[in-house]
Specification:
225 residues, Glyoxalase
Length: 225
């Protein structure tokens, strides 16, 4: 049977949603590998809306995370509370500041953050069933609160985010933009993507490696079943 991967989005746009290039590169690589995917996003109001031309927050312009994420998924998307781990072999969460604003409150609370409960409910079963989990850009910051302590992840070389990960009980590993960090025991794969990338081709190399490793891990038995 064809492998199935869930992709969790946080809106549309680097400053207030999911990073568009990261999302597109993820979906492209899944398709190139012949892997089926479905996109999901929480049906909630965005933390705020950012004018991507000026990078300033817009007042009085509320938007819905699910509706905005639908722009990236060409309308083929479901509410996050409909994500059932039993129907998928792995899950991937692209980056973008929507992760730190809509899927969590990391942008305002730092290492005191909380993760959106709907995200925790959706991803915990993947963790419990030892199904591979991919995170990129800023999304690895969710791992200590979402999955637990002592899981190796990367956001590249950012000292403040790395420090927050460590303060929450995570293990941060420095990583080049074109590489990945793999925690084989916990079956978590991360890459810096646009935490470091200056060109789309740089982001693509690491993201493709992440998706390729997720593909391999779906064929492998977990170390601690």
């Amino acid at each position: 049977m064809t492998k199935q991967v869930a992709v969790v989005l946080a809106g549309c746009g680097v400053f207030d949603g999911s990073e568009i290039y990261e999302t597109t590169l993820t979906l492209l690589r899944l398709d190139q590998l012949g892997i089926d995917y479905r996109c999901f996003a929480p049906d909630i109001e965005q933390h705020h809306v950012v004018n991507h031309l000026t990078q300033e927050a817009q007042e009085g312009e509320p938007r819905n995370v699910l509706q905005e994420s639908a722009r990236l998924a060409r309308g083929e998307i479901q509410p996050l509370d409909e994500l059932k781990a039993s129907e998928f072999d792995a899950v991937i969460v692209p980056g973008g500041f929507g992760v730190a604003k809509n899927l969590s409150d990391f942008a305002s609370e730092g290492d005191g953050m909380q993760v959106l409960e709907a995200l925790k409910e959706a991803l915990t079963p993947f963790w419990e069933d030892a199904k591979p989990i991919g995170m990129m850009c800023i999304s690895p910051v969710l791992v200590p609160r979402l999955l637990g302590d002592s899981i190796a992840v990367t956001v590249g070389h950012d000292p403040s985010v790395a420090g927050a990960i460590s303060a929450m009980g995570g293990l941060h590993r420095s990583c080049a933009v074109d590489d990945i960090v793999v925690d084989l025991e916990h079956r978590v794969v991360t890459t810096p993507a646009y935490m470091l990338a200056t060109r789309i081709s740089e982001a693509a190399t690491g993201i493709f490696k992440l998706v390729d490793r997720i593909d391999e891990m779906m064929d492998q038995k977990p170390l601690n079943p």
